[in-house]
Structures are given as structure tokens and as C-alpha cells.
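dumping this here before i forget
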Amino acid sequence: MPHSNQQSANFAALTFELGAGGDAVTTEAHLLPVGPFRSSDVRPVECAAWQLDASIAARVIARAADRKTDTLIDYEHQSLRSETNGQKVIAAGWIPNTFEWRDGKGLYAINIGWTGQARREIADKQYRYISTVFYYDGVTGEVLEIISVALTNTPGIDGLDALAAMARAALSRGELTDFLTTGGADMALNDQQAAALTSERDSLKTNVTALTTERDGLNTQVAALTRENGELKTKVAAIEDEKAKAALAADKAKHAELLTAALTDGRLTPAQKPWAEKQTLAALTEYLDATKPVALLTKQVDGKDQAGNHGLNETELAFCTRMGVKPEDYVKNKAS
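structure:
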């Protein structure tokens, strides 16, 4: 059964001296010892001792690994105090959520990335201690989660009550995990919650897979429609090209027909043929519509043939008619 908030919402802080790393600043820190353990004062008062072993540490490490951001190492737990003192939080370093259990020693933070300023301060012994605020079960004493890690020069318990209050304030603001917000459920209930979350995660994965499959199917359809559209465009272009060619051929045939008729009825002279061949169908049609056929001199009004009198063919007679030249004069000039 879940414990009450009064029994379970408990916080504590322990401090260890930073390990010596020779000339180099250490990139690991001892956060908590092997349990059961107590502080040098009367803590804890709610339970016999704090409990931490390999299996408990594994759960603490797993919760840290679930965080989306690295764990901050600040100065004097300012991240918990900023709501009350209004001062900004300055990072001394970051733990990439790489916590490690060491048998016989306890819980360590490893691969710490110190800021340049913090590295210099540690090297110069301006800061000598690492302080860990953690959340624990008030009945069993079991360590549940790391709340805050900080560089400090006050290794005792000064300000612990204030830190606990600030940690609880952070809890009420929803800045800790859903596990903490419950006020501390027992591990059986926690396992149920984990199972429910795992089931929900698997369901979401299934939905994502289904949506991905649907997306791929839609992409395939889009590709097929795009290909079909391209083929239709090609067919339409071919049809339009054939229509254009057919129209051009029809225009050429009509042009040739008009040209032949105009040369025959005298609306065009042979001398005009090269010019007429260069005209568009519309231009030639407009010209011929405005030009009247010329009566050939090969026929008299009564229809009798006079071609024998001049020796001119129809084209020559049409030219004489249009130019106002007498056939006999044309014959003379042609002979000369």
C-alpha cells in the first residue's frame, strides 16, 4: 500500500570530500555510501537507517537515466534556493546521468563535465566537498532518487531543514518525477505504474508503426499518380502535336489550292507566284478575296478562240490583260 506523504516525503543531504586526482581534477564523485547508513548526527529520525544496496541503486540509476537532460551540479544547491533568494543558478558541472554502483563503496557520479571556472576552483581548493540531496522512503529508509548535487564548503548539516523545505517546494511545482509527486508509493505500486507505462509505450510504438506503414502506402500511391500524370501529359502533348501537324498540312493544301486557282483565273500572274508562295494562308486569302478574276484574252465575247492570232498561251494573255499591254506588242517585244 502507498505510504502517506508525512511518512514518505523525506529528503536528506550527505557530503563527501572530492577525491584527489593528482594534478588533474577528478571527473567522478562519491555521492552516497553503502547502506544501511546514518549521518553523524541523529538522522534519520523517521526510520532506523537509510538503505542503499546494489538493487536499490539500480532503480536510482534507472530513474536518472530516464531524464531527458543531464544532472546539474551547482553551487551550494542554488537550484533549490533560487525561488527564495532570487539569485541565478550557475552550473559548476554536469553529470550525463552516468551514475555507477561500486560494491563496498556506494553510489558514484562518473564522467562529470566540470565548467572551466569550477575546474579551476577545485584545483585551487576553493571548493572541497560534493553534497547530495536525495529523496528517501520515510518508513523503510530506502533511497529513491537524487534531487540535487552541488559543490559546497559546508560539509555539515547546516541549512538541511531549509534544503528539505526547498526540495519539497520543487516537488509541489512538479519539477520532480511523477513518482515523487505521488508522495512516495511503495515499490509494488511503482512496478504497476512502470508496467502501465511500458504498455502505453508499446501501444504508441504500434501506432507509430501503423502510421509509418500508412504513410509509405500513401507515398507509393502519390508516386504512381505522379507517374500516371506524367504519362497523360506525354499523351496529350503527342495529340496536340499531331493536331498541329494536321492543321499545318491542311493549311499548306489550302494555300496550294488557292495559288493554283488564282494563277488560273488571273488573280495572280506568274510573276507574283514567288511572292504569293511566301504569304500566309490568311494573308493570301485576304488578297485574293479583294482581287477580281481577269477575263483571258484567249476568248472573245462570243467565246471564239483567238489564240491562233497571237500565239500566246493563257498565262501570257493574262499578263497582257493585267498590265494593259496589247498581245501583238507583247509578241513583238518577246520576239525582239
